[in-house]
Amino acid sequence: MTLAMSWDEWTQHDGTALAERVRNGELTPRELASQAASAVAKVDPALSGVVELFEDVIADPAKDGANLSGPFAGLPFLMKDLGPTMKGRLQEMGSLLMRGNRASADTFLTGKFRQAGLNLIGRTTTPEFGVCSSADNPAVYVTCNPWNTDYTTCGSSAGSAAMVAAGVVPIAHATDGGGSIRIPAGVNGNIGLKVSRGVFSLAPHMSDLTGLVSIQGCQSRSVRDTAAFVDHARGPAPGEFMPFWTTAQPYSEMIKRDPGKLRIALSHTWGDYTATPEIAAELEKAGRFLEGLGHHVDYALPEIDYREAFAAQTTCYISNFAVVIGNMLAARGLERPPAQLIEPINIRIWEHGRDFSFADRARMQGVFNTTSRGFGAFFEQWDVILTPITALPTPKVGTREYLTISDNPDVLDWFGNLWRNFAFTPLANLCGMPAISMPMATQDHGLPLGIQAIAKQANDGLLLQLAAQIERALDGKWNDGKRPGVHVAPN
Question: Which member of 57, 228, 384, 428 has the greatest number of CB atoms within 10 A?
Fold first, then answer.
């Protein structure tokens, strides 16, 4: 197959640049889709990040309703196999139980993607129901990190992170219920923004009240792609239960200006959980870099009950997933999760959470409230909290203590294992705050390490401004300008 451009040229373009070339008549949406499909064929055998490509919309990008005159002009876009549905397409959620599950309609956000000009060309891997840290079950698939395939991509936006990092597409769909955009962005060298609650719609199946911690978003390689994605996909569906944030100016314009001098609080210890000395040193290095950009940087942290906050977050996950699994069982006339079709920890989550009471949820929501108020008070004095994206190094493929195929009999102990590594991301979901992972640092074993910035509710634009300022200071060279070993155009 003759490609529209060389692989080096392909990866030198972000999504905004590719869309501009389509508008200028230099490329067609079909050529972009064909190049992306060839990229999947080139790297996915080593990574296992794509579940399925849709050959019909690769051949005809307008077939499913992509608005080729929209701002993304037919840019190929991979969808995580979880969350927004695509009419007539499979959505199997990383689960053997869901094999053959086909959506009857687009969700509201899917329609926003299509209207923005994104061509939804396929599905990417996720752990079962988005639970846990990696898409790593040999009975389904094992997604590997393009920087070193001995290591995991983390998750749950595993395949999307791998495909963006490997140069397959410049931007891909991701979701985040406790770090699932930011963590894989951080360990794959991408940009990952979790927006505030009240930006992206979960209609029609949920609202920001029923979803509570769940957020949609993307993985990207440039700040302007992420900004444009938020600009064009944000907004409420009719009948939203909660109000949605609005902005005086599109983020795509806002990021052209540096933020003013910011008060940035560093932290690598949250309650019982602390980063390794090596990761803490990378955070301090990032802090010094931001001081060099003119910001005030010091160590500080909100005064909240972290132990209670993590316990409430655990209650939220267990009760939410127990309901999700229970609904799937009811739809199939099953009384219990079949052990041969649902992974062991997810069965234990269902068992532990199916009898949670309204009083249990009310206590949880009370802690959500006090925690959010504590962060809110902190942000009266500080603009940004800066943390590492993880507390521990990225695990190797098959590290079962983090996986839902674990044989850990105690589901609370299993969640405790997760928090020891992924302590810094979930409380932003609990409080509805925006947070972004930026590929500014490196782990001892050579994999990327994201640096996370968190801001108060609705200050998503400030985080994007800060990220854009950093990107300009780095001359666009995130990850020190390096590419992963598995890449469409390797170093």
Answer: 428
